[in-house]
Protein backbone atom coordinates (compact mmCIF):
# COMPACT_ATOMS: atom_id res chain seq x y z
CA UNK A 1 0.00 0.00 0.00
CA UNK A 2 1.03 3.63 -0.46
CA UNK A 3 1.61 6.15 2.33
CA UNK A 4 2.94 9.66 2.87
CA UNK A 5 6.16 9.14 4.82
CA UNK A 6 8.08 11.72 6.83
CA UNK A 7 11.59 10.29 6.56
CA UNK A 8 13.65 13.25 7.83
CA UNK A 9 12.75 16.55 9.42
CA UNK A 10 10.79 18.50 6.81
CA UNK A 11 11.18 15.78 4.13
CA UNK A 12 8.28 13.68 2.89
CA UNK A 13 7.51 11.39 -0.01
CA UNK A 14 4.85 8.90 -1.06
CA UNK A 15 6.30 5.42 -0.58
CA UNK A 16 5.26 1.81 -0.70
CA UNK A 17 4.66 0.93 2.96
CA UNK A 18 3.85 -2.27 4.81
CA UNK A 19 0.29 -3.05 5.79
CA UNK A 20 0.01 -3.26 9.60
CA UNK A 21 -0.13 -6.71 11.19
CA UNK A 22 -3.37 -7.34 13.09
CA UNK A 23 -2.48 -8.93 16.44
CA UNK A 24 -4.53 -11.04 18.81
CA UNK A 25 -6.60 -8.18 20.26
CA UNK A 26 -6.00 -5.52 17.60
CA UNK A 27 -8.43 -3.86 15.19
CA UNK A 28 -7.39 -2.98 11.63
CA UNK A 29 -9.15 0.00 10.06
CA UNK A 30 -9.48 0.59 6.33
CA UNK A 31 -8.97 4.34 5.99
CA UNK A 32 -11.79 5.78 3.88
CA UNK A 33 -11.06 9.47 4.39
CA UNK A 34 -8.39 11.61 6.06
CA UNK A 35 -7.79 15.33 6.49
CA UNK A 36 -4.69 17.50 6.70
CA UNK A 37 -4.24 19.27 10.03
CA UNK A 38 -2.19 22.38 10.77
CA UNK A 39 0.09 20.16 12.83
CA UNK A 40 0.74 18.03 9.76
CA UNK A 41 1.84 21.19 7.95
CA UNK A 42 4.39 21.84 10.70
CA UNK A 43 5.83 18.34 10.19
CA UNK A 44 5.79 18.86 6.42
CA UNK A 45 7.68 22.15 6.45
CA UNK A 46 10.11 21.13 9.20
CA UNK A 47 8.81 23.46 11.91
CA UNK A 48 8.23 20.37 14.08
CA UNK A 49 10.35 17.22 14.27
CA UNK A 50 8.77 13.80 14.27
CA UNK A 51 7.60 13.02 17.81
CA UNK A 52 8.79 9.44 17.48
CA UNK A 53 11.35 7.81 15.20
CA UNK A 54 11.81 8.32 11.47
CA UNK A 55 10.41 7.18 9.10
CA UNK A 56 6.76 7.67 10.02
CA UNK A 57 3.48 7.76 8.08
CA UNK A 58 1.77 11.09 8.77
CA UNK A 59 -1.96 11.73 9.28
CA UNK A 60 -4.07 11.73 12.44
CA UNK A 61 -7.52 12.96 11.35
CA UNK A 62 -9.29 10.02 9.74
CA UNK A 63 -12.32 7.77 9.55
CA UNK A 64 -12.89 4.35 8.03
CA UNK A 65 -14.35 0.88 8.39
CA UNK A 66 -13.15 -2.06 10.43
CA UNK A 67 -11.44 -4.41 7.98
CA UNK A 68 -10.09 -7.07 10.34
CA UNK A 69 -10.12 -8.02 14.02
CA UNK A 70 -7.86 -10.21 16.07
CA UNK A 71 -9.45 -13.40 17.47
CA UNK A 72 -9.62 -11.89 20.97
CA UNK A 73 -10.48 -8.31 20.01
CA UNK A 74 -13.26 -6.47 21.86
CA UNK A 75 -16.57 -8.03 20.74
CA UNK A 76 -18.25 -4.62 21.00
CA UNK A 77 -16.90 -4.11 17.48
CA UNK A 78 -17.42 -6.08 14.28
CA UNK A 79 -15.91 -6.11 10.79
CA UNK A 80 -17.64 -3.53 8.60
CA UNK A 81 -18.38 -1.03 11.40
CA UNK A 82 -18.00 2.60 10.36
CA UNK A 83 -15.62 4.16 12.88
CA UNK A 84 -13.62 7.24 13.73
CA UNK A 85 -10.45 7.26 15.82
CA UNK A 86 -9.41 10.03 18.17
CA UNK A 87 -5.83 9.16 17.11
CA UNK A 88 -4.39 7.85 20.36
CA UNK A 89 -2.03 4.90 19.78
CA UNK A 90 -1.05 4.12 23.38
CA UNK A 91 -1.22 5.48 26.94
CA UNK A 92 0.23 4.37 30.25
CA UNK A 93 -3.16 3.95 31.96
CA UNK A 94 -1.66 4.75 35.37
CA UNK A 95 -0.80 8.47 35.51
CA UNK A 96 -3.07 11.15 37.07
CA UNK A 97 -4.29 12.21 33.58
CA UNK A 98 -5.26 8.65 32.65
CA UNK A 99 -6.84 8.21 36.08
CA UNK A 100 -9.22 11.09 35.26
CA UNK A 101 -9.88 9.89 31.72
CA UNK A 102 -7.84 12.70 30.15
CA UNK A 103 -5.84 10.27 28.03
CA UNK A 104 -4.69 12.96 25.59
CA UNK A 105 -2.67 14.45 28.46
CA UNK A 106 -0.91 11.20 29.36
CA UNK A 107 2.84 12.03 29.38
CA UNK A 108 3.54 8.66 27.73
CA UNK A 109 0.85 9.00 25.05
CA UNK A 110 1.76 7.93 21.52
CA UNK A 111 -0.21 9.54 18.72
CA UNK A 112 -1.09 8.10 15.34
CA UNK A 113 0.58 10.14 12.62
CA UNK A 114 2.75 12.10 15.04
CA UNK A 115 4.87 9.56 16.94
CA UNK A 116 3.78 6.29 15.28
CA UNK A 117 2.43 5.44 11.82
CA UNK A 118 -0.77 7.28 10.95
CA UNK A 119 -3.54 7.58 8.40
CA UNK A 120 -2.21 9.06 5.14
CA UNK A 121 -2.35 5.51 3.80
CA UNK A 122 -4.89 2.70 3.38
CA UNK A 123 -4.81 0.84 6.73
CA UNK A 124 -4.25 1.81 10.38
CA UNK A 125 -4.01 -0.49 13.39
CA UNK A 126 -5.71 0.26 16.72
CA UNK A 127 -3.79 -1.79 19.33
CA UNK A 128 -5.73 -4.13 21.58
CA UNK A 129 -3.68 -3.03 24.58
CA UNK A 130 -4.96 0.51 24.06
CA UNK A 131 -8.58 -0.60 23.65
CA UNK A 132 -8.36 -2.49 26.94
CA UNK A 133 -7.34 0.67 28.81
CA UNK A 134 -9.18 3.25 26.73
CA UNK A 135 -12.15 1.73 24.88
CA UNK A 136 -13.40 5.15 23.78
CA UNK A 137 -10.34 5.77 21.61
CA UNK A 138 -12.66 4.56 18.85
CA UNK A 139 -16.24 5.64 18.15
CA UNK A 140 -18.97 4.30 15.90
CA UNK A 141 -19.74 6.71 13.09
CA UNK A 142 -23.49 7.22 12.55
CA UNK A 143 -24.80 6.75 9.01
CA UNK A 144 -25.96 10.38 9.04
CA UNK A 145 -22.32 11.56 8.96
CA UNK A 146 -20.68 11.14 5.53
CA UNK A 147 -17.35 9.35 5.59
CA UNK A 148 -15.82 12.15 3.51
CA UNK A 149 -16.35 14.83 6.16
CA UNK A 150 -16.03 12.63 9.26
CA UNK A 151 -12.30 13.38 9.83
CA UNK A 152 -13.29 16.96 10.64
CA UNK A 153 -14.88 15.70 13.85
CA UNK A 154 -11.37 15.76 15.34
CA UNK A 155 -10.86 19.55 15.14
CA UNK A 156 -14.53 19.98 16.03
CA UNK A 157 -13.94 18.01 19.26
CA UNK A 158 -10.98 20.28 19.99
CA UNK A 159 -13.18 23.35 19.61
CA UNK A 160 -15.94 21.84 21.75
CA UNK A 161 -13.45 21.25 24.55
CA UNK A 162 -12.06 24.79 24.24
CA UNK A 163 -15.34 26.72 24.05
CA UNK A 164 -17.80 24.64 26.07
CA UNK A 165 -15.75 22.59 28.52
CA UNK A 166 -12.72 24.79 29.20
CA UNK A 167 -14.24 28.14 28.21
CA UNK A 168 -17.42 27.51 30.27
CA UNK A 169 -19.37 29.69 27.84
CA UNK A 170 -22.98 30.40 28.75
CA UNK A 171 -25.78 31.33 26.34
CA UNK A 172 -25.99 35.09 25.87
CA UNK A 173 -22.28 35.78 26.48
CA UNK A 174 -19.95 37.39 23.96
CA UNK A 175 -16.99 35.50 22.50
CA UNK A 176 -13.88 36.60 20.59
CA UNK A 177 -11.96 34.09 18.45
CA UNK A 178 -8.45 34.92 17.24
CA UNK A 179 -7.37 32.94 14.19
CA UNK A 180 -9.47 31.95 11.19
CA UNK A 181 -7.98 28.53 10.56
CA UNK A 182 -9.94 25.32 11.10
CA UNK A 183 -9.75 25.42 14.92
CA UNK A 184 -10.77 29.06 14.99
CA UNK A 185 -13.67 28.47 12.61
CA UNK A 186 -14.88 25.46 14.59
CA UNK A 187 -14.62 27.57 17.76
CA UNK A 188 -16.89 30.14 16.10
CA UNK A 189 -19.37 27.40 15.29
CA UNK A 190 -19.26 25.96 18.81
CA UNK A 191 -19.92 29.43 20.26
CA UNK A 192 -22.91 29.73 17.91
CA UNK A 193 -24.25 26.31 18.91
CA UNK A 194 -23.77 27.14 22.60
CA UNK A 195 -25.80 30.33 22.24
CA UNK A 196 -23.27 33.17 22.21
CA UNK A 197 -24.83 36.58 21.64
CA UNK A 198 -21.97 38.14 19.68
CA UNK A 199 -19.12 36.19 18.09
CA UNK A 200 -16.18 38.23 16.83
CA UNK A 201 -13.71 36.50 14.51
CA UNK A 202 -10.33 38.22 14.31
CA UNK A 203 -7.92 37.30 11.52
CA UNK A 204 -5.34 38.49 9.05
CA UNK A 205 -5.81 40.30 5.71
CA UNK A 206 -5.31 36.96 3.91
CA UNK A 207 -8.45 35.61 5.65
CA UNK A 208 -10.78 38.15 4.06
CA UNK A 209 -11.37 36.27 0.81
CA UNK A 210 -12.29 32.75 1.95
CA UNK A 211 -12.00 32.24 5.69
CA UNK A 212 -14.03 35.24 6.87
CA UNK A 213 -17.00 34.34 4.62
CA UNK A 214 -16.84 30.79 6.01
CA UNK A 215 -16.70 32.20 9.55
CA UNK A 216 -19.78 34.33 8.95
CA UNK A 217 -21.62 31.32 7.55
CA UNK A 218 -20.72 29.33 10.68
CA UNK A 219 -21.94 32.01 13.08
CA UNK A 220 -19.52 34.95 13.35
CA UNK A 221 -21.56 38.13 13.86
CA UNK A 222 -18.53 40.36 13.25
CA UNK A 223 -15.11 40.00 11.60
CA UNK A 224 -12.08 42.21 12.24
CA UNK A 225 -8.71 42.26 10.49
CA UNK A 226 -5.90 42.35 13.05
CA UNK A 227 -3.76 44.82 11.13
CA UNK A 228 -1.42 47.69 11.83
CA UNK A 229 -3.16 50.69 13.34
CA UNK A 230 -6.27 48.75 14.40
CA UNK A 231 -7.31 49.34 18.02
CA UNK A 232 -8.82 45.93 18.69
CA UNK A 233 -9.87 46.67 22.25
CA UNK A 234 -11.79 49.77 21.11
CA UNK A 235 -13.42 47.93 18.19
CA UNK A 236 -14.52 45.05 20.41
CA UNK A 237 -15.85 47.44 23.07
CA UNK A 238 -18.02 49.16 20.45
CA UNK A 239 -19.55 45.80 19.53
CA UNK A 240 -19.98 44.26 22.97
CA UNK A 241 -20.65 47.27 25.18
CA UNK A 242 -20.68 46.97 28.94
CA UNK A 243 -21.32 43.21 28.87
CA UNK A 244 -17.80 42.78 27.55
CA UNK A 245 -16.20 39.57 26.33
CA UNK A 246 -16.56 36.56 28.60
CA UNK A 247 -14.33 34.25 26.57
CA UNK A 248 -11.41 34.71 24.21
CA UNK A 249 -10.22 31.75 22.15
CA UNK A 250 -6.63 32.17 20.98
CA UNK A 251 -6.44 29.89 17.95
CA UNK A 252 -3.51 31.88 16.54
CA UNK A 253 -0.80 31.31 19.15
CA UNK A 254 1.46 34.35 18.66
CA UNK A 255 2.55 36.03 21.91
CA UNK A 256 1.12 39.37 20.72
CA UNK A 257 -2.29 37.73 20.27
CA UNK A 258 -2.30 36.37 23.83
CA UNK A 259 -1.53 39.89 25.05
CA UNK A 260 -4.44 41.25 23.00
CA UNK A 261 -6.74 38.55 24.35
CA UNK A 262 -5.90 39.48 27.94
CA UNK A 263 -6.58 43.14 27.11
CA UNK A 264 -9.92 42.38 25.43
CA UNK A 265 -11.44 39.82 27.80
CA UNK A 266 -13.51 41.27 30.62
CA UNK A 267 -12.56 41.13 34.29
CA UNK A 268 -12.92 37.58 35.59
CA UNK A 269 -13.01 36.33 31.99
CA UNK A 270 -11.38 33.29 30.43
CA UNK A 271 -8.74 32.98 27.71
CA UNK A 272 -8.25 29.52 26.19
CA UNK A 273 -5.01 29.17 24.24
CA UNK A 274 -5.35 26.64 21.41
CA UNK A 275 -2.70 28.02 19.06
CA UNK A 276 0.96 27.21 19.60
CA UNK A 277 4.12 29.26 19.21
CA UNK A 278 7.49 28.65 20.83
CA UNK A 279 8.54 32.30 21.05
CA UNK A 280 8.86 33.89 24.53
CA UNK A 281 5.80 35.79 25.72
CA UNK A 282 7.78 39.00 26.21
CA UNK A 283 5.09 41.06 27.98
CA UNK A 284 4.19 41.85 31.58
CA UNK A 285 1.57 39.69 33.29
CA UNK A 286 0.17 42.14 35.84
CA UNK A 287 -3.04 42.65 33.87
CA UNK A 288 -3.83 38.95 34.30
CA UNK A 289 -3.79 39.47 38.08
CA UNK A 290 -5.52 42.85 38.14
CA UNK A 291 -8.39 41.58 35.96
CA UNK A 292 -8.46 38.09 37.54
CA UNK A 293 -8.20 36.55 34.06
CA UNK A 294 -7.96 32.77 33.80
CA UNK A 295 -5.66 31.51 31.03
CA UNK A 296 -6.14 27.84 30.11
CA UNK A 297 -3.69 25.87 28.02
CA UNK A 298 -5.62 23.66 25.64
CA UNK A 299 -4.60 20.26 24.30
CA UNK A 300 -7.11 18.04 22.55
CA UNK A 301 -10.36 16.66 23.89
CA UNK A 302 -11.89 13.87 25.94
CA UNK A 303 -14.65 11.31 25.52
CA UNK A 304 -17.33 13.89 26.33
CA UNK A 305 -16.07 16.19 23.59
CA UNK A 306 -16.15 13.41 21.01
CA UNK A 307 -19.49 11.96 22.03
CA UNK A 308 -21.17 15.34 21.85
CA UNK A 309 -19.73 16.53 18.53
CA UNK A 310 -20.71 13.21 16.95
CA UNK A 311 -24.25 13.70 18.28
CA UNK A 312 -24.35 17.28 17.00
CA UNK A 313 -23.13 16.28 13.53
CA UNK A 314 -25.55 13.35 13.31
CA UNK A 315 -28.42 15.69 14.26
CA UNK A 316 -27.43 18.14 11.52
CA UNK A 317 -26.50 20.85 14.04
CA UNK A 318 -22.73 20.80 13.38
CA UNK A 319 -21.62 21.83 9.89
CA UNK A 320 -18.53 19.91 8.80
CA UNK A 321 -18.87 20.24 5.03
CA UNK A 322 -18.54 24.03 4.86
CA UNK A 323 -14.96 23.84 6.09
CA UNK A 324 -13.87 21.45 3.33
CA UNK A 325 -12.30 23.68 0.69
CA UNK A 326 -10.48 20.97 -1.30
CA UNK A 327 -10.70 17.23 -1.94
CA UNK A 328 -7.54 15.56 -3.23
CA UNK A 329 -6.24 12.06 -3.93
CA UNK A 330 -3.30 10.80 -1.86
CA UNK A 331 -1.12 11.21 -4.96
CA UNK A 332 -1.66 15.00 -4.78
CA UNK A 333 -1.34 15.42 -1.01
CA UNK A 334 1.81 17.56 -1.32
CA UNK A 335 -0.22 20.07 -3.33
CA UNK A 336 -2.63 20.15 -0.40
CA UNK A 337 0.16 21.04 2.00
CA UNK A 338 1.21 23.91 -0.25
CA UNK A 339 -2.35 25.24 -0.37
CA UNK A 340 -2.48 25.26 3.44
CA UNK A 341 0.93 26.90 3.71
CA UNK A 342 -0.34 29.69 1.40
CA UNK A 343 -3.55 29.95 3.46
CA UNK A 344 -5.62 29.47 0.31
CA UNK A 345 -7.36 26.42 1.82
CA UNK A 346 -9.31 25.73 5.01
CA UNK A 347 -9.57 21.94 5.33
CA UNK A 348 -8.35 19.47 2.74
CA UNK A 349 -9.82 15.97 2.64
CA UNK A 350 -7.64 13.18 1.24
CA UNK A 351 -8.81 10.03 -0.53
CA UNK A 352 -6.18 7.41 0.41
CA UNK A 353 -7.27 4.96 -2.29
CA UNK A 354 -6.51 7.28 -5.19
TrEMBL record:
Entry keyword set: Metal-binding, Oxidoreductase, Zinc
An MF annotation (GO) of this entry: oxidoreductase activity
Cofactor(s) of this protein: Zn(2+)
Annotated SMART domains: PKS_ER (SM00829)
Pfam short name (any one): ADH_N
Domain (Enoyl reductase (ER)) ranges: 10-350
Gene3D superfamilies for the chain: Medium-chain alcohol dehydrogenases, catalytic domain, NAD(P)-binding Rossmann-like Domain
Family named by the database record: Belongs to the zinc-containing alcohol dehydrogenase family.
Protein name: Chlorophyll synthesis pathway protein BchC
Source organism (scientific name): [Clostridium] hylemonae DSM 15053
Taxonomic lineage from the root: Bacteria, Bacillati, Bacillota, Clostridia, Lachnospirales
Amino acid sequence: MKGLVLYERGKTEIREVQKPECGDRDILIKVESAAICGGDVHFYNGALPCLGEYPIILGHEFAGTIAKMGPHADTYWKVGDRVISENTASVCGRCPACEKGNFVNCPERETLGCSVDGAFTQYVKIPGDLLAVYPNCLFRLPEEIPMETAPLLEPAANAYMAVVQEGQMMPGENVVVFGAGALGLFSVQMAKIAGAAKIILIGMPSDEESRFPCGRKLGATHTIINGEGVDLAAEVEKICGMSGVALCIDAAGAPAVLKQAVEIVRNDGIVVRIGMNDKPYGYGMNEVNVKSVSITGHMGYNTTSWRNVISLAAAGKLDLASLVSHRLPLSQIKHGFELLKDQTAIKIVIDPDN
